[in-house]
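Consider the tokenized backbone below.
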């Protein structure tokens, strides 16, 4: 007969160790474990197979451990692990910069700086924008998430992520995100966009002068905020207004890039090019790498020594990113993003129609999709408690999902885009079964 100690799962043992060793403030977004993974499947500490709908929080568009990426990491580790790009230049950094400029050009001349994380990219992009404009202020959006370092946290909207961390960076201003819902607003997208731009113009009169604003930073599809999508007319009008006022327009594409929306960049859906942009997550299949990409004359406005970092553009991370992008091209990651998005959207809309009492708005772009969990069929009544229950029950049944939203009532899908259709549908079946049990 097994002893009580032997009956405790390996996963539970890991979480007990975690509790004893790791600060409580380091969040648990899903109560799962993992010992190894491949494609769209994780094997947990007890040997159970889990379908991954979280993708390392949007990091694994190309899947877990693509063989060519693993090989590139191994080979690079044998040649050069670190020198610091500021000390000794190496080709891997330059090759990756060339590739990023090729697939994500910002006008006639583009430059790139490599970093370690999305938050670090945000910190540096703001420094560049301020130096390029000689202005102090930045405008961000309600619901936005840009990271947990000090400037990024100042730009981030969700106050729960900022508790006790102030004072924050000065001259950060916040406006409402242009979340359009035709049913709720009962006006056209074009009219809504114009109204929101007029609000911004009024904001310049009552909150901060446009002459003092260095940049406006926006997620075209909000990640942590709940997958709200900025309307195309709004973004185009915003681009025009920023040009008129000399304000840098920054797109935060950390979560929306590299095939997630069915294109390399979400901004490709808008026929708009930003002045500057930030990237990370899926550009490296899980290694810590990020980038700021921008128009060359703007990037060159930064003074020597004001941007960069010791590990920025590490050779192993560059090699992993180059191999990831090459693999993405070979498998046509953007087409996969469209295909996964079509399947998921169809199922989510089915959930909405079949379970209207608890499933609210479905929204997103490409394969960056989510739905609200609500009470009594009322979109104004978020149900965070049920959202958590759905997430935890799915985990028990072999499906890893994560939540989002200001109220914690959004279920989002960030599965690898290489996921097999049969496996994708199996995961969606598990999700639907759990939803149906809670109607």
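A designed sequence for it:
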């Amino acid at each position: 007969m097994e002893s009580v100690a032997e009956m405790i799962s390996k996963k539970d043992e890991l979480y007990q160790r975690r509790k004893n060793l790791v600060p409580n403030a380091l969040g648990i977004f899903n109560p799962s474990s993992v010992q190894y993974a491949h494609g769209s499947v994780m094997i947990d500490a007890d040997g159970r197979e889990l379908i991954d709908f979280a993708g390392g929080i949007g990091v694994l568009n190309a899947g877990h451990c693509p063989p060519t990426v693993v090989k590139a990491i191994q080979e690079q580790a044998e040649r050069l692990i670190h020198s610091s790009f500021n000390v000794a230049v190496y080709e891997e950094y330059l090759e990756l910069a060339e590739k990023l400029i090729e697939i994500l050009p910002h006008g006639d001349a583009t430059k790139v700086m490599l970093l370690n994380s999305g938050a670090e990219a945000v910190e540096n992009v703001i420094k560049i924008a301020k130096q390029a404009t000689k202005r102090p202020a930045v405008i961000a959006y309600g619901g936005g998430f840009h990271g947990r370092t000090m400037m990024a946290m100042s730009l981030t909207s969700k106050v729960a992520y900022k508790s006790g961390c102030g004072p924050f960076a000065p001259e950060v201003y916040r406006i409402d995100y242009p979340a359009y819902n035709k049913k709720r607003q009962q006006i056209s997208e074009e009219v809504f966009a114009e109204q929101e731009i007029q609000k911004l113009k009024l904001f310049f009169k009552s909150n901060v002068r446009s002459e003092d604003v260095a940049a406006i930073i926006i997620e075209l599809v909000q990640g942590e905020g709940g997958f709200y999508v900025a309307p195309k007319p709004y973004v185009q009008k915003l681009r025009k207004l920023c040009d008129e006022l000399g304000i840098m327009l920054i797109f935060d594409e950390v979560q929306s890039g590299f095939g997630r929306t069915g294109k390399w960049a979400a901004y490709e859906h808008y026929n708009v090019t930003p002045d500057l942009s930030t990237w990370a997550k899926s550009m490296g299949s899980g290694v810590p790498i990020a980038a700021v990409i921008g128009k060359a004359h703007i990037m060159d406005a930064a003074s020597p020594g004001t941007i960069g970092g010791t590990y920025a553009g590490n050779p192993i991370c560059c090699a992993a990113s180059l191999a990831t992008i090459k693999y993405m091209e070979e498998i046509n990651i953007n087409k996969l993003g469209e295909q996964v998005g079509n399947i998921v959207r169809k199922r989510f809309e089915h959930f909405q129609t079949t379970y209207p009492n608890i499933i609210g708005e479905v929204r997103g772009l490409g394969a960056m999709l989510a739905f609200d969990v609500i009470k009594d069929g009322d979109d104004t009544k978020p149900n965070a408690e049920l959202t958590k229950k759905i997430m935890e029950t799915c985990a028990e049944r072999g499906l890893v999902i994560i939540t989002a939203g200001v109220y914690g009532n959004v279920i989002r899908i960030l599965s690898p885009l290489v996921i097999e259709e049969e496996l994708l549908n199996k995961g969606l079946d598990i999700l639907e079964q759990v939803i149906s049990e809670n109607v």
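Residues 18 and 24 are 9 Å apart (CA to CA).
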